């Protein structure tokens, strides 16, 4: 085999991206003739000199040093100049000095002392910085104190320390380069042993870049600027170093280095290491000072509380604070004398320190000692009956309570959210090292590890028998759907990453409470358990907590199953699901754990965790390969900044929640409940029934049963096809005269087929469907299979749609500018992901909608299983479709279908009643938080005053003064936000507010904080425990008692019970009309509806509904006002029946088994079959869709006939089919809608007549649309107020789409259904509870009569129930006069 010749460099292919293909030199055979070894000139001398130098190094002898270098006028620098002689400076080791081969003998070179290598060097540098920082605390504080609010000067060219003590040490002179924003300043520092160079630099506003013998200093002002830049963006030391280098060179400060072979040249990166050291240790110094200030404030709080309490409590508090007082005084004393003798400090682990540290641990303590000391400090700084000061500082609105023990049903004392993020993983290659920083928010790893071990032991014990809130299948499904619930799911490679991510707990305002490092491949329950235990250790013993977690259902079940949490904690914590994550759970799980349905949760979505991840996402690439301790340091510092900024904006948060969240939701929910006209008692009863039914085990089909049903259905289909083939063969053989043997064989095949059918039936019976669901006994197999398929299909759609929502939310940032725009690559990848998934989602939705129509056709008579609501094919419509999250109901109900399952008005009423309850709960909690913040401001001002007294003339007083100024600023910005308000946003009277704020700081109880706990009984255990009042309706009487306002405004009587009747002057009246007409009316056979819907759904992929019309349809319902005031008709048609009778008498009816046709201009003729005509002949017959549509079209024809006196009125009317509204309801496309309705030329008709068939109730109603006046007139012969809201909303959607289609097809229709200034009004054509029909079969006749009245220019017709038999007869005779061809 011939060798392939390698390509040369010229033949290498060009690379389109990256670094290209690595070039390798061609392999050439060696010249065998060249055997000699060639050595260059002077090789022997160079080799001998190298061996001599190596021997000297091995013996430990130092070679002679080079001659000193003369100073130069050019600014030289070296990346290691600030490195002390005995300490390593940074992670990256400096390059080895270049050794030139001096011929013929080696020349002497300048040799540096050998530095310690590896961890020893890092520990030595850390120890040097730790020993230096205490001596810098007082100079740092005094510098800020002297320069606060003043323009800062540069350091003078010469700094001399005048030693006043009898210092015998030699004085030293150092030349320091001081880096400012725009220039470099050289400083000569003369000092002695009693004050170090670093202290002198800090006193003049310069921070040293090295702990010993610094040669470079960084301006503290520059470090402050960078800190603010870090807080607003992220860590950018490299960028700052490069920017300084560029500025200096442009302003004439040339930076050179000596580490080159050819002499002096420009330095490439002279400041990065210096800035890294200065930034890290200056921030550590700042953190130490802040901890001492916090310690002083905590000490002042304890002493102030002891003075205001009893002598016994004072004695106990005094003994508890003795250690802290001693430590505070020791801090001041040690800080004062720190410059003389800086103490030593040992390195401590940055990731193994408690999150509740209130004061710095002793420098010489180990990690375990630090935990113990900080735990003792935490217990010492906790007032009786109050939360720990650490929690109060992180969120005073949540934790500054004085009264604890609020029940979990009322929302608990505080509400938190928690979640983990695996983007913050840490690469093992980054390593670790000491930085002497004690994190504030991170839990120690040892604490989390102990919890993990305890969980493992607890799960080995037998599981407890607990009452499940959900069926096991629901819990298993949620566990499979969420990766966080699968503890064995690997989200990071443990071989590459030593930390998989970060776990965070936030309060409901998004304030970070705790952080912890995730050091397992998956998200385990040990993290949430460890944080809960830490939280409860810092709360009073009777405190209650509502904890939001993305897998709350699985976690709650696990904690009930095993003794993981102590009983005293488990009974005081309740779990819910985060607002956004709830939509990814099963519907039954949402009913129990979703904050929308959970009593006491208010309107908070508890997604502050996600907002925190979004804000800190820029730190992900920076912390990936850092030291592990530096990663913790950076994340903790950023969490501190986010917390401080969030605390300052708590007043804004409360105002936004009141104005933009509560007001909007309360107003919308109140309007919907007014329109629903259903009593609150009924809605709450229906909610209890719904929750009990949909969380029962009967509501969920086993997966085994679904698979077996599929197999049986396939077998049954094959048997049916075989039967058809046998019948065709039999008929063919009989007609062709086949011999007897063939007929005998055919009879055997028939017998075999009958046997197979019997076995298939037996197989279906063996599935135990009747045992699993006894209610499904007797239902057709196709119906049962379709029902279960629809249930699984909807679950699949919900999962896909939820993923699409998140993708579109990400993509929308690039369009709307929210947060930050996506990059081009991410934008394209997101669009590709959406385009790949969207066809499958649309196909699933179209299949589901087709199954809705098919299931309606397959449903047997008198079956009480409701037909599911079709889904929107547009993502925006699907996002706002609440039915998306509801499972398909698969169990029949006893008696009639429950209203919560069948009545859209009840379903929407329940949703909005929950919204009202959440609004009321939110108002109570906001007022409670306002009281907490007012009390916190008052207490902190008193604490600051006392701290100043304790500190005396200590430089730390400057920080206390800064805190007082911050409190004053927050008080001014919160002034309007902290006023107590009711649910309408009205301020409570000044006297009530004064009484609420009159509580003395540190008192054991507060009147204002106890007020929101007042509750009132309700009709159900799930009812919001809030005071009640009336809701003002627009006008008119009602058939039901009013929906009560979940929060009483000021000035009204308090304490009304939910079931207590209102005063006599209430505009509503008690009671509602209910008509029961005996047996179930049966089915109305509407075959055309199935045909039309199948046609629409089959063609839905051709052209989709436009985004514009869909969005407009969603907004149209918000401009509709339903007014229940009955207005007498302006005109009544007195002669319709007489005119119809005379016309029928003048024509000859055509009787017989014939179909009659209604000829319509521009439309195909309507066929009325004998089956459709039969209900007109029966005294109790109920009209179907074909018969009603045909009769209405025929009445329009005779009223607009030439020379007809009603032609002008009839020409103004557009008569819609009963199936046109179904196109909107079943999400038909725009082309289909235009094809069916455009022949009516509705854009030229000011009056639209829309008959509506309520399938579940088997009832006909009518809506008349008056386009010029923007009115909807609705008619119901039963005079019922129920069910109208959904019908009217559907009509508004239809109007919106028809207006958009007309304008798009160049038929101008100048009417708006979106402008809130152009309101639409709906009013009834009947008096509520005064029916005109007293049976269950004349509703279609009443609708036709009212349609005829409007065609003839009137608004009513003087008919009564006794006139309907005659009207029925005349309608039948009229239809018999129609053509039969």
Chain-wise SSE layout:
Layout: H1 43-59, E1 76-77, H2 119-147, E2 158-160, E3 172-179, E4 184-191, H3 197-203, E5 206-208, E6 216-219, H4 220-232, H5 237-250, E7 256-257, E8 265-266, H6 272-308, H7 311-336, H8 367-380, H9 389-394, H10 396-399, E9 414-421, E10 426-427, H11 445-459, H12 472-481, E11 497-499, E12 501-507, E13 512-518, H13 525-537, E14 545-549, H14 552-561, H15 567-570, E15 573-576, H16 587-593, H17 608-616, H18 620-623, H19 628-648, H20 650-676, H21 680-694, H22 703-736, H23 740-766, H24 769-772, H25 781-816, H26 824-858, H27 875-879, H28 899-902, H29 904-951, H30 957-973, H31 990-997, H32 1007-1010, H33 1087-1098, H34 1107-1116, E16 1120-1122, H35 1136-1145, E17 1156-1160, E18 1163-1168, H36 1170-1177, H37 1185-1199, H38 1207-1211, E19 1213-1215, H39 1220-1225, H40 1230-1237, E20 1247-1254, E21 1259-1266, E22 1271-1275, H41 1284-1304, E23 1320-1324, H42 1339-1351, H43 1364-1376
Parallel strand pairs: 1-7, 2-4, 3-6, 9-14, 14-15, 16-23, 19-20, 22-23
Antiparallel strand pairs: 3-4, 5-6, 7-8, 9-12, 10-11, 12-13, 17-18, 20-21, 21-22
Helix pairs in contact: 2-3, 2-6, 5-6, 6-7, 6-29, 11-13, 20-29, 21-29, 22-23, 22-25, 25-26, 26-33, 29-30, 34-41, 35-43, 37-42
What can you tell me about this protein's structure?
This protein is of the alpha/beta class and 1381 residues long. 47% of the residues lie in helices and 8% in strands. It has 43 helices and 23 strands. The strands form six sheets. It has a six-stranded mixed beta sheet, with helices on both faces. A hairpin with a 4-residue loop joins strand 3 and strand 4. The protein is elongated, with a radius of gyration of 42 Å. The N terminus is likely disordered. One of its GO terms (molecular function) is ubiquitin-like protein peptidase activity. Belongs to the peptidase C48 family.
